[in-house]
UniProtKB/TrEMBL annotation:
UniProt-listed NCBIfam families: CDF
InterPro entries, A to Z: Cation_efflux (IPR002524), Cation_efflux_CTD (IPR027470), Cation_efflux_CTD_sf (IPR036837), Cation_efflux_TM (IPR058533), Cation_efflux_TMD_sf (IPR027469), CDF_Transporter (IPR050291)
Protein name: Cation transporter
Membrane association type: Multi-pass membrane protein
Species of origin: Candidatus Acidulodesulfobacterium acidiphilum
Amino acid sequence: MKQFTISRENIFNKLKFVSYVGIFANIILTLAKFYFGIAGHSEALVADGFNSLSDIFAGLVVYISFKISNKPQDKEHPYGHAKAEMIATFLVALILILFGLSIIAVSSFKLYFRYYERPAFDTLIVASATIIIKEILYRWTLRWGRLLKSTGLIATAYDHRSDVVVSTAVVIGIIFAIKGYYYMDPIAGIVVSFFIFRLAVKLIKESISNLMDESPPASVVDKIKNLIASVKGVEHITNIKVRKSGPYFYIDVEIEINQNMTVKMSHDIAESVKSRLMSSNIYINDVMVHINPFEN
């Protein structure tokens, strides 16, 4: 499999492009769902339209976070602005929770007051088309999110997948409503809301872990250790700390070198460690190397 490579300068441009595509698709779907849902007397499709509307706002939040996280380091933010993406992920999760609550409220209202109408067949076509479009967007966005190591983009991808689940429930509800089982539409809405809550909780956990500087998986840390140990002059790794800030890694490492080396030689080894790590992965944003004497 060919290894994926992209310059750091092009990461933001690709993130921006993927976000634009998602926002544009959601605008088209929102207009279609509102028009056909209202004209076709499908409350489920109208509710799904509000879902797509929330996706537009979520996409804008993620895009703005990309723009902020791409800003260079400054005096007030010496570690950069990458955590803005995690804040965006958290906000996307909150939007999902609000949408889930709205589904429960509307569906419960319909069940209690028995407010049912038979939807038009066009509503079934729009809901079915939404499933196909959103599944394509999910796979495409998730692929780029993983390649670019963007938690915000991955969150958007899973939001697309939740839309597939929502639209599937809408299709089922519309089919039963057309056949005369009108109560199935709001029941399907309530079931879907629990899937949305589950996704939102997952995204909240991921964003909080990143904001709390949780260490990456052991396999990632081990790979970093192996690279450091391969640098000539490094005798032992005393301690290493790796944290994520958005898609980027920050590494603090203590290494031991021969105690008889000069300051200049020790400095050169430290620079070699930093250079080796940063050249190995464009997402390693900074490396702090501390030197300790190694005694035989």
